[in-house]
Amino acid sequence: MTTTEWTVRAITRATLPLLLLLTLVEVGSGLVLGGFESTLLRSPALLVLVPVTIGTAGNLGSVLASRLSTALHLGLLAFDPESEVLVGNALATLGLAATVFPVVGAGAWLLAVLTGGARLPLVAVVRVAVVAGLALAALAVVVALAATYAAYRLGLDPDDVVVPVVTNVCDVLGVVVLFLTVRLLV
Amino acid sequence: MNDAFTPLAAALPLMSLGRVARDAYREALPALSASLVGGLLAGLVLGGMRSDLAAVPGLLVLVPALLATRGNVYSSLGARVATALHQGMVAPRLAAADDRLARACAAALANGLLASAFAAVAAFAALSVLPGTATPAPLSGLVAMALLAGALSGTTLTAVVVTAVFAGYRRGYDPDALVGPLVTTTGDVFGVAFLLVAVRAVRAAGLFGGP
Fold this sequence. Notes:
- The complex is a heterodimer.
- Chain A is mostly helical.
- Chain A has helices at residues 8-35, 37-42, 44-73, 84-114, 122-154, 158-185.
- Chain A is built from six helices and no strands.
- In chain A, 49% of the residues are buried.
- Chain B has one domain (31-204): Orthogonal Bundle (Tetracycline Repressor, domain 2).
- Chains A and B meet through helix 1, helix 2, helix 3, helix 4 and helix 6 of A and helix 1, helix 2, helix 3, helix 4 and helix 6 of B.
């Protein structure tokens, strides 16, 4: 990034290919979303859940990826199941999900009630949010770890590549996991 | 596993593991909470778009791509500006903004528009080809909507990102730590809000075939 000259052409050449690739991946997740559009339109609370679940999943993954990348740069990270940095950060990710997703579910239900369209009971929406959230946190750990390891082995700049890739993969997983959870629980 | 169990040796790594986990948790929670609020607000707007989603097949398919484009393009712009501030290549004042900053913003806008139109074409193509999916709304309407939403949210996010990164830097915050939470929070809200504006405008213009 620091080596990129600041012209429209140079910046575009450096960022557009990955941007278009990630856009295609996100259209794929949109198609999954389209696959349960009728369920979402019937249950506004689930529709409210969509952006916040995607966003939170992407955030959990990107925070973990950037922490692991930094630890790797500093020589603090070993790819070893006994590594405290690794296990500690993974635990923190699960803890964050366990904290945040009950609030996500309750918030989505409340907003749907306030806008006059909650069809599902509070417990059902919170259950969907928490089950999807914990599954996503576990997946975010796997994805962030795999991407950091791949960047390390391939010598890629972790900030330029790992964080955007992990964020978008977690976005997509957010939609897929939400889809599966709704299929399973609603 | 704990054949040679001694309390002290077992406790030491656990204490340090606990500290790593606690620190990571504490550092991430504020930003995550901020983006949670942004995500819920975006969901509220999306919930209010049910009639548009039903009237414009393909709109929901575009939502993740358009929101992700905001995040990808403008966090990259923010990271670029933050790095330049760190290196003293850019002065943290809008009044002193030079051509280089203007070019970086123009590149972000152009890439954001290109990716938005690309998403509309890809979604249209996928829905046209894949069996068992809804027949999409007209391509011209989807592209017009994606471009309008991209232009509106792009100009707003460019202004928000540059202003906030400059202001944060002048007050002594690390601009790199500001960019991520800022873009994810405002990107979702503005992304969906301007998508609503754009779909209503394009529907009113009749590009989706009648109001």
